[in-house]
What we know:
Layout: H1 4-19, E1 24-27, E2 31-33, H2 38-41, H3 44-47, E3 51-55, E4 60-67, H4 75-92, H5 97-100, H6 114-127, H7 133-143, H8 146-149, H9 159-171, E5 182-184, E6 195-197
Parallel strand pairs: 3-5
Antiparallel strand pairs: 1-4, 2-6, 3-4
Amino acid sequence: MRFYFYNVRKHMLSRLAGELGYNVIQTDTDVAWFANPYPALKAGVLAAHQLVVQPDLPLANAGVLYAQRIGAADPAAWVLRETVARIHTFSFHPEAVPSVVSWAQPPYFSNADEQSILNDVLASAITRRPCYIFSTAIMEMKYGGIKKHNRSFRWENTPESRTKASLMKMSRGRRAPRAAGVVARGATDGRGARVRRGE
């Protein structure tokens, strides 16, 4: 299984933060902290948010994620649970792909990458509309069986392609309210806490 580690670590994050109420910081192994991040996470604008993630395209980088003060019924807990559920589904059940991407054809790529799934889940939470564009639709177009079955099939003709721009605009806060307690912030917060990702 390609993405077993993602399944395990996001499951642990969801259990510890979303179910048991612990504050958890999860970072990739290529992240170096040059200052203690907790003063920045516990004061100012970041203290008001339940999920703090490193920004990346399209929305967030799953390699730096801090979860704090999350109750089991909070929207942030839903984000964690849904991320785990999607990673698990696409890791163990590739046959589930056409239930979310109707034009997909076998063999399914069944992407279970935590970052693209987290971005889809965040877009789903913020817009209150199901999103499987980044983790599933784009990957099925690139690596799934659709091109084998239909060489003339084009991304531009998919429903996901037609809704991607408006969904991203809504997700970035231009039209829809943000999900309560979810924020993506830059690598510095003005108080000295910096994050550097390895090459």
